[in-house]
Design goal:
heterodimer, A: 296 residues, alpha/beta, eight-stranded parallel β-sheet, 13 helices, globular, B: 203 residues, Rossmann fold, seven-stranded mixed β-sheet, three-stranded mixed β-sheet, 12 strands
Chain lengths: 296, 203
């Protein structure tokens, strides 16, 4: 190879590896994006409404206006991500044309296809997808996702679902590790995931792409909890800009994500942050309004 | 002889791939998040990641001064991508320099956005005749280098992609993301020569 080759699997997964140990923050304006970058975010997710507002607003949630994405791209030098609906490959084509750095095929938006996710291998821009368990993670990787995150339950400020999903992924990996090679065929069938990816995970003992956490992170302690449970980085949605002091909370979550295993620093950064976002108990959310069940 | 203890600045970024690469070339990686973690290290890797985020955490946890002092004392340092930006004395777009010991000017995101990230084979005679497969991710480029800086490799378009200045080594690309360990071996050789020089001085 004498010339350069762009948008390879290595460059897609590579960008996700560079985000490890960091915080990716949801932002709805260019000003938010600047606050996020100043606080030490490693990337921003550009969207029109944070998940808690999507939940409140109801109706169909779609890809953001390209104008907003362009404004946010112009405001910061860190990577800019944006969301498209599950299965909505035309929204993804538009986001690629806007040259966003990562596309989140996200359950936070209203799904456009109830059977199929996007063929992410067909795109030059890398994708991140959510999961609730190992099978879902491996199906998304099979379709070309270069980064995986837990779904959690976005917009609730309640970490319980993200914990459930991260534990399920880790447990699934541990179970695969224990299997003999001939048992992986049945395991792939049971996980409804491509055999090659199942075999790869059984051998590596981890996902072949970075494994991040999202959905319900509202405090520095939540971020550190997900890191201790094995998340390599953390997405924060409503938790920052729906809190009383976004800048303070943003900086504290960045520090907590770095020093996730140092309780002295966690105590220090958790002090005096003001009112966090108002949380939602899962039992208050009817099953049909839960975002994590979207995706197949 | 004991394994060389090599620190990896672990505030944010691709820490694990560097730890694996260091182990593969026979060093013992140590994660550095606070000044006390620098005690006893014989080299320091500044990994790729987001240089703005890493720099803010270096300031918040008082790491700039002690790392600069180690660099001045001759401790070998190896910066990849964001790590190269952190070592640089000058940053093209006016961003504040961090450790500021490597006499180069760099431009952040010199190649554009993620869609412009690429892989290519480079000539890097310092690690041997075989071409080096290099992965560039939202990479910076060296736009100017002082007289003490040796250019070790250029990208296919001719831009400076790897440099060395005494005990400092920096690449715009990510040797930790491939299985070719020659650049990490080159860095470990710097660590080894410093150890030998110190042993000779004591002896």
């Amino acid at each position: 190879m004498t010339t350069a080759e762009t948008s390879t699997w290595t460059t897609k997964v590579g960008l996700a590896r560079m985000l490890a140990g960091g915080v990716i923050m949801d932002v709805v304006t260019a000003d938010h994006a600047r606050v996020a970058e100043e606080a030490g975010a490693v990337a921003v997710m550009a969207l029109e409404r944070v998940p808690s507002d999507i939940r409140k607003y109801g109706g169909v949630a779609r890809m953001s206006d390209p104008k907003l994405i362009e404004e946010i791209k112009g405001a910061v030098t860190i990577p800019v991500m944006a969301k498209c609906r599950i299965g909505h490959f035309v929204e993804a084509q538009i986001l690629q044309s806007l040259e966003v750095d990562y596309i989140d095929e996200s359950e936070v938006l209203t799904p456009a296809d109830e059977e199929h996710h996007i063929d992410k291998h067909a795109f030059a821009v890398p994708f991140v997808c959510g999961c609730r368990d190992l099978g879902e993670a491996l199906r998304r990787i099979g379709e070309g996702a270069a980064m995986i995150r837990t779904k959690g339950e976005a917009g609730t400020g309640n970490i319980v679902e993200a914990v459930r999903h991260m534990r399920a992924v880790k447990r699934g990996i541990a179970q695969l590790r224990a299997l003999r090679p001939e048992e992986l065929f049945a395991a792939a069938k049971e996980l409804r995931a491509p055999l090659a990816v199942v075999q790869q995970v059984a051998e590596l003992g981890e996902l072949p792409v970075p494994n991040f956490s999202a959905g319900g992170v509202a405090t520095p302690a939540d971020a550190a909890l997900m890191r201790q449970l094995g998340a390599e980085a953390v997405f924060v949605g409503s938790g920052i800009f729906k809190s009383e002091h976004p800048e303070r909370v943003a900086k504290a979550i960045v520090k907590a994500t770095t020093h996730y295993d140092n309780p002295d620093i966690l105590a220090e950064v958790s002090t005096g942050l003001g009112e966090p976002m108002h949380g939602l108990e899962l039992s208050e959310i009817p099953v049909e309004e839960r975002l994590a069940v979207r995706g197949w | 002889m004991t394994l060389a203890r090599v620190g990896i600045l672990a505030l944010q970024g691709a820490v694990r791939p560097h730890a694996e690469a260091l182990r593969a070339v026979g060093a013992e990686p140590v994660e550095v998040r606070l000044p006390r973690d620098l005690a006893g290290i014989e080299g320091l890797v500044l990994p790729g990641g987001e240089s703005t985020a890493i720099r803010k955490l270096m300031v918040a946890y008082d790491l700039l001064e002690p790392i600069r002092a180690l660099a001045d004392a001759g401790i070998p340092m190896f910066g990849t991508c964001a790590g190269m930006i952190l070592l640089a004395r000058r940053i093209g777009d006016g961003d504040e320099p961090a450790v500021a010991v490597l006499d180069v000017e760099v431009r952040r995101n010199a190649y554009g956005r993620q869609l412009d990230s690429f892989e290519a084979n480079l000539d890097m005679p310092a690690v041997g005749d075989a071409p080096l497969h290099a992965v560039f991710i939202r990479a910076p480029a060296v736009t100017d280098a002082g007289p003490a800086v040796e250019v070790l490799a250029r990208d296919p378009a001719g831009r400076t992609a790897a440099v060395r200045q005494g005990n400092l080594l920096a690449t715009a690309f990510h040797p930790e993301l491939t299985t070719d360990r020659r650049v990490h071996q080159l860095f470990l050789a710097l660590v080894g020569s410093r150890r030998a020089a110190q042993a000779a001085a004591v002896g």
